[in-house]
Each structure stands twice: as structure tokens, then as C-alpha cells.
Fold this protein.
Amino acid sequence: MNSLIEVRDQIRLSLKEVVAIVVSGIQHRFLRSTLTMSVILLAVAFFMSMLSESVFIKSTGRAVQAEILERKAPTLMLRRMFSKPSTKILRKHLVQASEAELARMSVFTGTHLEDLQRLSQQCQRMDRYRSFFQKLDVGKRLALIGKRKADAIYIHLQPEKVWKEFLKALDPMHSVKIPGKVEEFRGFLDRFDTFRKEFSAFHLAWNQSIELFSLEAEKLMGTPQEEEWIRGANEEQLKTFVSLATRFHFDVELKFAEKMKKSFRDEHLKKEMLKSLNSVEGRRMWAKAFRTKHDLDEKIERLSDPRATGVIKGFSSDEIVLVKGIFDYDKHLGKLSDALVGKTELEGDALLSKRQIFLLTISFLVCMVGIANAMLMSITERFREIATMKCLGATDGFILTQFLVEAAIQGVVGGVVGMFIGLSLSIFKGWFLFGGFMFENLDVGGLTMTGLISMVSGILLSMLASLYPSWSASRMAPMEAMRIE
Amino acid sequence: MAEEERKNPMDYDHEEYAKGQKILVRAHNVEKTFVNGASVTRALKGIDLEIFRGEYICVMGPSGSGKSTFFNMIGGLDSPTGGRVFIDEVDMAQLNAKELAFLRCRKIGYVFQSYNLNSVMTALDNVTLPMVFGGMHPDEARRRGHELLEKVGLGERWDHKPKEMSGGQQQRVAIARSLANDPSLLLCDEPTANLDFKTGKEIHRILYELNKDDGVTIICATHDWEMLSVSDRMIWIADGQVDRVARSKDVKIEKASLGSDEEF
């Protein structure tokens, strides 16, 4: 049969041709495409700002915390060297000590390293159980252990009879779980008396070593005012002090000793200046110079005022500038740590805190819904156009590819621009909260990572969101698509 | 049963008319049922028709008669729920999606009542779109696009967008577009319904010339007497069935009696 119509498969357009059609389409409906792109952009920007803000807070928070510790280090070290610690503080030392620190402690107290490691482990376990019992609500706590406090609990639970009752009472409380295994807790209870004995032995040894060190130090310094002595010590004296501290296995180097010296000097200067400002004479002169009364904070604010220089006698202008600097920096650090309160749990190595994960999940959902909606709209409103194109010979594959390519282009543009907008927003916010401190501790790697994450998720989401509507549109018979409209 | 008792809608001797003609479209007991939730609409209740190559057919029927649905069945724009449609003895139901796209692209041209032009593209881009789908080289497509626009009298306005044109001009662009890949069948669904009398007449002239000069088979849904008078056969569809088929030369008497007022 000589048929005039010979039916073959419709040809497939190359990706290049499809891209050309899509690009001209985007140019033609520029406003509508811009609208879709800006929805993607906003979603990505929102997500990005949340992500990068958490990176800022993390890096800045760590830096602030380290800085605060660093400032406190000389005082802390001095306290550790010269005062006998309470049980609580010593336990904290043990829990926080690094391997090297433990080794030093072991030599310092003459305790075996293995014993000390075991003690440290026991202390850690104790902390865990302590926080477990602390977090119990009142009713459950009463049912389980009565009104006992901390250490008394462990002694109370030791007898077999009480222990069994405890387990029986614990059994129906499904939400309450002893940290670790129950057998571990029982083991801890059994060893508790030994632990206490060992710990007090360690405590005793520690205190004896401290006493010994204090004696030696007093011989060296000739005064019980160690802070004052360090402040006034010359290079030679500092070296002797360092060698004495090293002999007692304190982690003190010459550099650190110098830092101690400077820090104590600054502190002393600050105190002296405050004293002079607060003295009757000082207050009178201040009021005279400024013709009004100021409280202490306001006075500190005005320290660089030339009138103030005249009032604070006995201090050089360099010293005044120095003290003003210390005040300002302390205030700055205080503000920074205030800004961080509640934003992040700085302890622990987890990249994100629970709060941040919650916020990020929400913002990701917002991003997802926004993009899905934008893509869905931009396809369903063009059902008629799709139907017409199918009448003119567009294949299902072409329709699908066309919309996916369009989604990809819009996703890339929206994602890149949104990423930068989100980044600048969070940088602005970070700058507002932390000032220059944020830029000094910028986590460039983390930011690049978050930028990539938000960009890629923008592109992927817009493609994913357009996948279903364009797939269903491409498979519809042309007239079906027209009827829907 | 009831189907059997139906009277033969042919007003003429079909056997004789069909002699020596080649069938282009054959509809065999075509049915279409739309299900929308609980309501079931039987749009087509079994249509049998033969349309020959080179014919000019007018299809008439009140709105809701199933006329447009029938058009979509022939054009491969929708699939029937029962029966079969053959184009040149090719069963449309046997074609896969790609073959259907091929058929729509090269063998069938569509002209819609509401033009359905891509509103963001120029006239030329609209006309060349089917050629792009057909894989024609862009330069060749542009050349042919200009040629077709020239043919419908819009050679000068190739770079205008649909909203810058009148309805008649838009419909002429749509006709040029439907001719892009030299189709053998042109399906026009009320092409002049949205146009005034004078512009409608221009469209008639273009379609008539296409049929007579280029031998394109045209199936046209219309109520225009102007168009009916030039057609070969007329088909009346009512209530999803073929009500009557007549040769236009036999109907002319009726037209005179009915149409004397209608002319004005």
C-alpha cells in the first residue's frame, strides 16, 4: 500500500537548542522569570543568612571564649599555685585535665598515673550521674532517692535492698534512663567508698604539695603577697620563679610568667586609679573640673578627657590611656559574650547546637516551600502554552527538559545572588553584634561551605520542585492540558 | 440496538462519491467519555466517518455537541475512550508519544478559535517554532517563515508580537504556523468565530486557496455560510453523533432559502 504519510519518531532536540529556546523564553517573559527567580533568591538568601550566621557565632563564640579564658589565665594559674582547692574544684581539674596535664598532676602529688586516670574517669562518671539526678523532676526524685543530696545518694543506694527498690521504682519511668548501663552504675556505687578514699588521699597529697610549694615560694619571694612580688619582679627573679614552678610541675614558662607580670601590673594600675577616682579628694576634684557629678562608669568613659588628666594625679598620660584601653576592652568582651548568650552552646565540638539545627531546619523548610510554590506556579500557569507546543510537535522529553533547564537557570541565578545577599545580611548582622572581632575570627572555610550548601540546595530544590509538575504536564494529552486551564 | 436503528445520515450516494478517492481520515465508532468525579459525560457516542484526501469539509453542530472533542480525536490531541481513528490507514492508538509528536509536527496543522499563539514571541518565531521542533536549520526556518507570512499577507509584520496585532492578523499568523511543515491535513476549530465578518472572509479566502491550489485537506468547524459554500461536504454533529452528512452542492438550495437574511 502506497501510504503518503510515513510516521517516524519525532527528532530529539539537542540540549543546546533547548537551552537557546529557554533563554529566549526567559528574555521574553523577563518580568515573570525575575519574579520566580526572586522567590528562589529570597529563600536561598534566608537559608544562607541563617547558615552563615551560625558559622559566625560559632567561630566568634569560640574566639571570645578563648579570649576571656586567656585574660583570666594569669589569675587562675596563681590561684591554682597558691591556694588549696575545694573538692569540687579539684574534681573539675581532674575532669578537664588533658593527658599531659594528668601526667604533671601525677608527679606533683606522687600518685600513680593509672590511679589518676581511673580517678579522672570516676569523676567524669560522677558528673554524669550528678546531672542525671539533678535533672529529675521533684516527684520522681522523691520516689527514687528521697531528699538526699549529691554524694549521699550513692551511699544511700549501696545496700542491696535499697538498690532493688530503686530499680523497681525506676522501671515504670520510661522517660528516665540512667546514663550508660545500669551495671556500670552499680559498679560505680560498689566502688564509691574506695573512690572517695582514693580521692581524699589525692586531695591530701595535692594540698601537701601546694603547702610545700608555698613554703619554697615564700623563701624565694620573701613576702606572702605573691601577686605583688610577680608584679615587681625583674627578669632574673622571674626566671627563678619559673624554674621553681617547673620543679613542682606547674605548666609555667617564662613567656607566661611575663604575661602574668604584665597582667598583674595592669590590674594593679586599674585598681589604683579607681581608688584615686573614688577617694574623697578625687571625687571633689572631678566635680570641680567637670562642674558636675559623674558615677564611676561615666568617669571611666571620660578618662581620655584632658580635664580628667588634671584630676588623676600621680598617673602618667600613658598610664591613663592604658587603663582606659583595658576598661574598653573588658567592656567589649563583656558585650560580645552577652551577645552570644543563648545563641550557642559553646561547649562541645558539635558543629551546630540544637537550637541552631532547629532554626536551620525551619529555614530550610521555608526555602523548600517557597521554591516549590514558585516553580509550581510558573509551570501550571503555562499549561496552555505547553498544550500548544505539543500540538506543534514538541515531545514529552522536550517539555520536561525545557522546564528543568529553565528551573536550573533560575536556580543558578537565584542561588548565586541569594547566596551573596544572605551572606552580606549575616555579615552586616555579625558586624553589628560583634564588630571587628568577627572579621578577625572569620571562618572562611566554613563560610565557603555554607555558601556552597545554600547555593546547591537552591538549584536542586528548584529543579526538584519543577520535576513533578513538568513531568505531569509533559505526559498530558494536549487537550487535557488546555482543559485544565 | 438503538445504534442499529439509527438512520443513515448520508444524504447522498456515498459509495459513488467515494469511488476513486483516497481515504485520509477514517473514524470508526469513536467514543469519548469524560469522568469528572461522580459526573460522567458522554461527549462522543460512536462516530463513523471517512474523509478523503484533498477534501474541504465543514463540521457543524451546536456548542456541546461534541464537535471540538471529535476534532481533537482526529488531530491526535486527545485519545478516544472507544473506537479507532486512522490517518492514512495508520491507527493513531498504535502510535507512541514520539510518533504522535512527529505526526502533529509534520502531518497535521492546527488552527484554533483563540489562535493560541505564544504571546511572548514574535510572529516569525511563532511560525518557525514547529520547524525548530521538526529539526529544520534555523536559517532555512527563518526563510520559510518569511515566505509563509508573505503568503498570508503579513510579510511586513514578522517582528510584531501577537498583542500588537488584530485578531484577524493573529489568526493569519496561526494559519502560517499550521502550514510550517507542509501538513497534509489542516484542522480548523471555528477559526473565524472570534473575528468580524470582513476579516473572517479573508481567512476563508486563504483556506480556500490552500485547499484548491496546494491540495491541503481541510476540516473546519464553522457556522459561516461563506465557508460552507466552498466546501465539498458538510457534516452535522449533534449529541455526540453524526446527525447528517451532505454534499454542499445539494445544500445550496437550503442555503438560499435560509441565507437570504443571513447575508446581512
About this structure: Chain A is about 80% helix and 0% strand.
